[in-house]
Amino acid sequence: xxETPEIQLPEDKPLEIAGKVYQSRLLVGTGKxxxxxxxxxxxxxxxxxxxxxxxxxxxxxxxxxxxxxxDVISPESYTILPNTAGCYTAKxxxxxxxxxxxxxxGHDLVKLEVLGEHKTLYPNMPETLIAAEExxxxxxxxxxxxxxxxxxxxxxxxxxxxxxxxxGAPIGSxxxxxxxxxxxxxxxxxxxxxxxxxxxxxxxxATIAMELGCDGVLMNTAIAQAKDPIRxxxxxxxxxxxxxxxxxxxxxxxxxxxxxxxxxxxxxF
Amino acid sequence: MxxxxxxxxxxxxxxxxxxxxxxxxxxxxxxxxxxxxxxxVPRSQHPQFTLNEGDRVEVVHxxxxx
Lengths: 269, 66
Prior knowledge:
The complex is a heterodimer. By secondary structure, chain A is of the alpha/beta class. Chain A has helices spanning 36-46, 69-72, 90-103, 125-137, 150-159, 180-189, 203-211, 221-224, 229-249; strands at residues 15-17, 20-22, 26-28, 50-57, 79-82, 109-112, 141-146, 163-166, 195-197, 216-219. Chain A has a five-stranded parallel sheet with strand order 5-4-3-10-9. In chain A, strands 6-7-8 form a three-stranded parallel sheet. Chain A has a two-stranded antiparallel sheet with strand order 1-2. Chain B has one helix spanning 18-24, and strands spanning 2-5, 8-11, 33-36, 39-41, 56-64. The interface between A and B is medium-sized, with 37 and 26 residues.
């Protein structure tokens, strides 16, 4: 019996952000989990290498032995991406990033998000632009959460942001990618990585983002609030890989009418 | 002297350093960042940096977030 040679697919170019190469295109948050153990297991199952954290006041009078998030998600094993969640002004966002840099021993990769209002958590783009400019001037590498406006995305890239991260739908909504055309336009124009950040609800949403040509997806709630977060983390890992493969393969064109898969020639009836 | 730590009033001996404050909070050795009156105080300066009456101190750490 002859051995069938294993099919070798051409290798994909890995994701590169601010000069660092990542094998995984799935980025995950660490919020909304039941406990740190679940957080750790879900992140492991997701295969993510970039993990977001928030910066908040230390509880005074807390139990000194209370485990810390960065003990579970250690900066030695993961690229920690501090966010500016909860900031509604450029000033608060810049302040948060400076604290994060100090917290992480000079690590200067940040996720900038400046929010507009509480109900939608929609990005406040005027404040985002101000904060991005100040942070870049101060030496930060800015991954920017933004609206899905192709012109603003280009502007952020020109300013020097290292990744453009338009929302698929409002944070925590799980509504999926609401404006595929805009995401596609942003991807087509961009020379830096484009990652959908926010709005993914389930695996198919993540796959769609990747099929549109996004370089990655950042999600939190879709995994953390699933009935079984660890299983969903694994589903998302597979979804991202599938979507990427489908994008690289190039999908068939959509047609309005059927086209038989079996030949008509040779029918005997 | 009275200082504000994470929004709470706190009585500290006059001339107390950030390192002393962190020790009093039983947070020595923890991964945290400190800001005094909205300016970062690098970790290397915690042993020397003395606080003054009315200073607003923020002690922050990383928690779960997306």
